[in-house]
Design a protein that fits this description.
The protein is an alpha+beta fold. Helix content is 49%, strand content 10%. It has three domains: 98 residues, Phosphorylase Kinase, domain 1 (2-Layer Sandwich); 220 residues, Transferase(Phosphotransferase), domain 1; 197 residues, Serine Threonine Protein Phosphatase 5, Tetratricopeptide repeat (Alpha Horseshoe), CATH 1.25.40.
Length: 534
Amino acid sequence: MTEASIGTDSLAGGGAFVGPYRLERALGRGGMGLVFLAHRADQQYEKRVAIKLLSGVLRDQTLLRFRAERQILAKLDHPHIARMLDGGVTQAGEPYFVMDYVPGAEPIDDYCDHHKLSIRSRIELFLDVCDAVHYAHRFLVVHRDLKPSNVQVSRDGVAKLVDFGIAKDLLSTIEDEAHVPSVPVAEGNDNGSLTGRTMTPGYASPEQVRGEAIGTASDIYALGVLLYELLTGTTPYLSSSTDLESLLREVSEGAFVRPSQCYARRGKPAPEHVLNVRGLTNTRQLERLLTGDLDAIIRKAMTNSAQARYASADQLSEDLRRYLSGDLVMASQHSTAYRLSKVYAKNRAISSALATVLFSTLFVASAMASLALKNYLDLLDARIETGRSQEVAHYLTEIFKNAGPNAPAADVLRKAATGLGGHVKGEADWREPARLAVGEALVGAGAPADAAPLLEQVVLENEKTYDHANPDRVIAMAFLGDALLGQGKAREAAAWYRRAIDARGQIDEIPRSVPTKSEIESHLAEALREAAHK
């Protein structure tokens, strides 16, 4: 079969040639063209590639866009963008270009579901997409059609941004928008053209829908939509994609549902398969993961005003990295309670919700001494849930009232430790976790000599009360090792680290508050190094 006889029907079955490339099979439609799997037949070692070909009756505007896409890809070279390898025109006058073929590739949402990626893993994969988009923006290229099917992921987890068929080179003199035929809003066509504007409904930015000037901010919006779907398994809008007029009105008005409420607003729980592929068991878990920082990040990316969005895809990815590392997210409101929650989240060795309250309050005394006492008490009031918590809150309140809000943290902690030093029968329920939290805080405040007796008492009392290892015991042993190491007692510290590792191994279900085995082993190695030099 020669190039001159190539037609759409014959191409679908493979066996034809495009230049030196022999087509194997059709892979599907890519924007304006057809994409085929092919190989270069004139080489000893055949390399499979993907070929995008315009076939059939060609209109001027279609040729202009195809040429623009080829020019755009020719100047982009990024590990997460499908690379253009070659290009040309068939004998029949049909233009084509050759791209890297990614075996086993599937749309990013399908890949995440098939591999049952957690929320965290989905974000980590999405960061590669942000990097690719940011790279394209540096060359003033706006993709304009970011959606799951245009982000292909290989079987080994490498994301590739594809199909720049309606991309816009901001430096180009080709104003292809002027050549797009208008169609009614309620209809649309295969190329995603609506009312004279090129887009995919549901992923287009408000300014695309309104027919305004398009810049890199439109891609930021689409990234927000893509991230929304990867995390929630549903769309940001209440209107169905079949009700095009209502959908476009929601987009234009910025009326999307925040991620954490995407199922509550629909009045139904998340589908079981959506939860299963994310490693979750109920909708509440998904809501808790999305509430707060992720809500704020997506809201900023998808805000109606282009100027109010992230200034770049790099800024979006930076905020996501901050979220993953537990740092302050720029999109969130940095209230006192928010800052305190971040302080606690980055100090994992906390034994319970009660210790969370106590430790957060004590720790912040050194980091944020200028805050008024009322800030501490407001935080406590918001988190008190049990009678035991109320006892600790009362005790702590008295300590801070007597010391004053600007007292050095170590002094306040020493006073708290003195009051907790004795074991009073009937008060163990709240005193034991309080001792543990104060002991941990003393280590963090640089007072290991004051922390060690308190932590050792926690271990002894725990062993008297329980005949089995538990999280509090592991935490106390690990921090006691830190306290001893801080005093230069490396050998004694090593012994407690070993005991903590052994006790941790006896716990079936280990909460996140317990230091990991690798963290304790790292401290053990440090203690052994110090002991060896003495």
